[in-house]
Amino acid sequence: MIAVLCVTPAALATARTIIRLLPEAELHGLSGRIDDAPVVFSDTKAHIGQLFKDGHTIIGVCAAGILIRAIGPHLIDKQAEPAVVAVAPDGSSAVPLLGGHHGANELARRLAEMLGGHAAITTAGDLKLGVALDEPPPGWHVANPAAAKPVAAALLAGKPVRLEVEAGDADWLSHLSFAEDAEPSVRVTDHAVMAEDRELLLNPPVLALGVGCERDCDPAELAALVRDTLEAEALAPGAIACIASVDLKIDERAVLDLARSLGVPARFFTAARLNEEAPRLKNPSDIVLKEIGCPGVAEGAALAAAGPEAELVVPKTKSKRATLAIARAPHAIDPARIGRAPGRLFVVGIGPGTAQWRTPQASAAIAAASDLVGYGLYLDLLGEAAAGKTRHQSDLGAEADRARMALDLAGQGKSVALVCSGDAGIYALATLVFELIEREANPVWRGTDILVIPGVSALQAAAARAGAPVNHDFCTISLSDLLTPWETIEKRLHAAAEADFVVCFYNPVSKRRRDQLTRARDILLTGRPAETPVILARQLGRPEEHMRIIALGDLTADDADMLTMVVVGSSESRRIAFNGRDWVYTPRGYAKKL
């Protein structure tokens, strides 16, 4: 996690910008009341220290001294410390304080570019050499990070350093001066080797692992095949650029788990594309050709991923239910340019409306998405968080179409946020997503990574605005009979009345449905008094927000619409006056103990 620490309201605008542009970041409020900060900590120093000890990257939108004093007592292991960057409240500068070569320098550069400021890099290697040997380009791996310091020191002192390139290329080091024969050295290799004294080992991303397996293959079997093959061939795991397979395996757990365990992306190709690699295969199979339309999955996928100039360095090898082949590319492999990636679908609850009630996880998902799908009003509520995203909006009532569109877009390999108000799993679209998956079984959707992100529900927001009405047992009932027969709804109302639940009504009244709310009122009156408090919360968290508290006996259809949350107290719920306004709470039995 990247924790963005917002210390004062003056820094909030900059913190918001960072959150919007860094999908993996989460906002943390530290002192006072900070609008839109979901968490407020009274002990700033202790909280920063704990984040640091837990290994979280820290971006403090504050004075550097605040971070230094908080983190100072916890500085123990330089090699293990996370990145810490101080950002000026106005975004004018980003200063990497710790972990410069553990991501802080690069993060400071990213932040400076985002905010239009300056990255104050102070590490000597970056300034004089123009590179950090222990922070190579994306995809590269440093096999022995401790060796970077003496090699960089030698370069900084003008002493000779040898460069050996055994695999790929090292163009990012081409501006440095190397000697043909010297004891300090940089070795670029895709082999697993023992480093010599003062030798820095760098693994370039030049290996593509092509894999195939039977359906529902044990992930441990495929992982063991890969591990044993790499050891037998003395190939470095750090040189693996991606896992590749046929698109029929885009939802295969063994393949996806392998990619996650190695920390590399998985890419998938159609059988037709793999068939193009047939002339280069060393072990073509007529059986595989007949079954899926190409003569080989492992070898074909490895070659397709590594490119036309690649060579097959490990022909197909197999276990009982899995196959593996490895191809080497002459240059670094960029997985973003090859094959098909599994799509991602975030089913996001954004709360009732205000950004104050939007969780950091929801904000991160929206920031990470390329496409937003939702009812137009809900997308509008995102404000600047929707900037730069492709919007796919539809009218109220087209819920199934929206869920299907989101799945289709994710099936194309896109990162999609299906936006719901309140909580995505409470009378919202999360259930439709899974219903469509089960009912339609569209092969295009296979492999989509789905994450349902909770949000503040309308009932929670209404309860908070009114006091504490749902602090004891409660239930929710939708009064819409579009999807649920009224006879079923009526049974639930009678049960709620008999059990004396606090009842939260969704969809209480519409233009077509004018009598359900009053019928529900009459049923509840059989189990609680007419003076039972009823909370009418409309447009919560929006400029049009309106709150009223009335008695159950006075409730009519004119008191609510589809934008109103109706919360009916139990027989124990209390309405009290305090500080010039009315509140509602439901005791939890504490009164008996007081």
From TrEMBL:
EC nos: 2.1.1.131
Gene label: cobJ
Keyword Transferase listed: yes
Pfam name, any one: CbiG_C
Alphabetically ordered keywords of this record: Cobalamin biosynthesis, Methyltransferase, S-adenosyl-L-methionine, Transferase
Pathway given in the UniProt record: Cofactor biosynthesis; adenosylcobalamin biosynthesis
Identification of the protein by name: Precorrin-3B methylase
Coiled-coil ranges (or none): none
Residue ranges annotated for the Cobalamin synthesis G N-terminal domain, each copy included: 47-126
Domain Tetrapyrrole methylase: 345-555
Enzyme class at the top of the EC tree: transferase
Residue span(s) of domain CobE/GbiG C-terminal: 207-327
GO MF term set: precorrin-3B C17-methyltransferase activity
Alphabetized InterPro entries for the sequence: 4pyrrol_Mease (IPR000878), 4pyrrol_Methylase_sf (IPR035996), 4pyrrole_Mease_sub1 (IPR014777), 4pyrrole_Mease_sub2 (IPR014776), CbiG_N (IPR021744), Cbl_synth_CobJ/CibH_dom (IPR006363), CobE/GbiG_C (IPR002750), CobE/GbiG_C_sf (IPR036518)
PANTHER family: COBALT-FACTOR III C(17)-METHYLTRANSFERASE-RELATED
Entry's Gene Ontology BP terms: cobalamin biosynthetic process; methylation
